[in-house]
Write a structure and sequence with these properties.
Length: 144
């Protein structure tokens, strides 16, 4: 059965990562990547967590145990059409060193929508505060 290192490298190869990108992702040197390739060093738990945070579509069960599929398959049909997987599991953004995962891009869209909703709610709150102040001022005038 392949090792965690071998499965991690399979994931990296399927995403066409260069050793420099892998080193950046793991926070190690390119010679450290070479040591992982040669099985002289084992990928650390810290590195596995970093990979899992950056690529939530990667199945940790597969990475750690070899059971199941590499990809969690978390995209629905609409998302799959909106974000075609080229190369597998991710799209490379032109201005990024090793790209941004599809799930992250979907979540970023959701966050932007929530930010817009928050701004609208804040605007409504300000309107309600003004109405409340006007009502309080009217009540004071009525009492006098």
């Amino acid at each position: 059965m392949p090792s965690v290192n071998a499965r991690f490298l399979e994931f990296c190869e399927s995403n066409r990562f260069q050793d420099k990108e892998i080193a950046t992702l793991l926070g190690i040197s390119t010679s450290g990547v070479s040591a992982i390739r040669k099985e002289k060093s084992i990928i650390t738990t810290k590195s596995i967590i970093a990979v899992a945070e950056k690529f939530p579509e990667l199945s940790l069960q597969w990475l750690i145990t070899g059971k199941g599929e590499m990809n969690n398959g978390s995209l629905d049909e609409k998302e799959a059409k909106e974000y075609p997987l080229k190369p597998p599991l991710r799209n490379i953004a032109a201005n990024e060193g090793y790209g941004q995962c599809v799930d992250c891009r979907v979540k970023d869209k959701e966050i932007e929508g929530l930010k817009r909703e928050i701004k609208q709610l804040e605007s409504h709150i300000e309107t309600l505060k003004c109405i409340n102040k006007n009502d309080a001022a009217s009540a004071v005038r009525d009492v006098s």
